[in-house]
Amino acid sequence: MDELMSKSPVSGNKRRYSLNAYVVGGLSALALAAPLAVHAATPVVSCESLASMVLPQATITKAEAVAAGAFQSPRQGMGFNSGMDLAGHHEAGSNPAFCRITATLKPSADSDIRIEVWLPRDSWNGKFLGVASFGWGGSIQYPNLLSGLEEGYAVANTDTGHQEGNGKFALGHPEKLIDYAYRADHQLTLKAKALIKAYYGKAPSKSYWVGCSLGGLEALIEAKRYPTDYDGIVAGAPPNPIVNFNASQLWPNWLITQEPDRLMPKEKYQMIHAAMVKACGTAIGQQFNYVDQPDKCTLEPGALMCANGADSPDCLTPPQAYLLEKIYQGPVNPRTHELIYQGPAKGSELEWTPFVGTEPMSVAEDMFRYPAFQDPSFDSRQMNWDKDIETAIKKVGPLMSVDADLKPFFAHGGKLLLYIGWNDFHNPDDLIRYYQRLIKTAGPQTSKQVRLFTIPGMGHCTGGQGCDTFSKVGVIDDWVAGGKEPERIDAVKVVQGKVIRSSPLCAYPMVANYKGQGDTADAANFTCVAG
Hints:
Layout: H1 2-6, E1 58-66, E2 98-105, E3 113-120, E4 127-131, H2 142-150, E5 154-158, H3 174-200, E6 206-212, H4 214-225, E7 232-236, H5 242-258, H6 266-280, H7 283-288, H8 318-329, H9 362-372, H10 387-400, H11 407-411, E8 415-421, H12 428-442, E9 450-455, H13 472-480, E10 488-495, E11 498-506, E12 510-514, E13 526-530
Parallel strand pairs: 4-5, 4-6, 6-7, 7-8, 8-9
Antiparallel strand pairs: 1-2, 2-3, 3-5, 10-11, 12-13
Helix pairs in contact: 3-4, 5-9, 5-10
């Protein structure tokens, strides 16, 4: 690992290979940043001339040529230094020359969808990349636009139809909610492809969509509603169905509100996590402080209770043990006793801070306040887990939930890459079941068109103790354009801009297994075996 730690990224125009400079043993270039195959497509018109291009229900507000190295990225959106970078980069690079187009789309009288489309001037690889949003949207994802541009893609992103970072935009604006749910992404795709064809004189040879969280749900919605928009789709941690998922995020706070004695200090979650790792982690998991296969963990909260109902930093009181048990379980309908959404996996406790305090998680509560009930005073601490959930599902579900029937997307030849972290509050077991239903619905031949990766130690889209950084667009491009089915992806862990270790991600149901010799921080010393 000393050689791994000492090398520095390739700079300048070679940045697309930067993470490849950290190759260790069997660490593949595919996992980090796919090499750029330049097709030298020369623009057939000037960038500035696109300002006068007529697009249906759209107004182009700017078309400007941006010189190489001249773009200064606003620090908005998920990207560099977060593990979320869609090309596996871990630092901002210098942009190639490109044509930057901004536009406003109005598919309805109340629509106000802002988009940006960036077209490489000299280095287009002939393909299009749709960049997804995150959370409630409301802004352009500049870091990931830049990341895709540096890989040679024509790239595009939308603010999802509003300029707020929360759900307030949906109050009294049903058309804006439709834009947020699916229309903005589809319209972005159509307009971007039209601009690409006008600029280069030809359509993209392949089109990809990459996103996580909201972006992962956007990915599934695109595949369901518009199966021919994209040839390859990457859906990370899709909160589907979103109402049920948001309800699960509010569940711990509701439980604490009902009995404040259930509240425990942050240090106790660290104690719980340590106990789970000790009881259920392999030697590798214990070394890197995560549970490798949480679905096989059998340690129960009752085993962590203090003797004689006492309280101590290294054990739980009965109310605290009850809270822990119910969080792992997930919310349940009190009338039907049906599970509303599965609780998080064991070993994920260090990621629970937003959910286990005295205040509800605002991102989740906004789903009920605005799209579902149109009531800013709605208080999830008074949630009726029968009627409120049912009503919200009826109102929002038709817009933003995706069943497991994606047959038209697969019939089009589409490839779908799913991924999620075991330390996410979103339990990967949920996505495993969805993956299995996809194949059952579309037929066993579909197994060649969909892959699922469950990532040990990774939090929500990024973070945690696991190796969370790999090139999502590199993997999907190698699969769609190169015909290489992803069975193993070698990912890295980046801390303060430096790669500190690597590990293989194995296609479900395979898991990474240490060979028994060599550096445990080197992916080359692991194989993928049956889980």
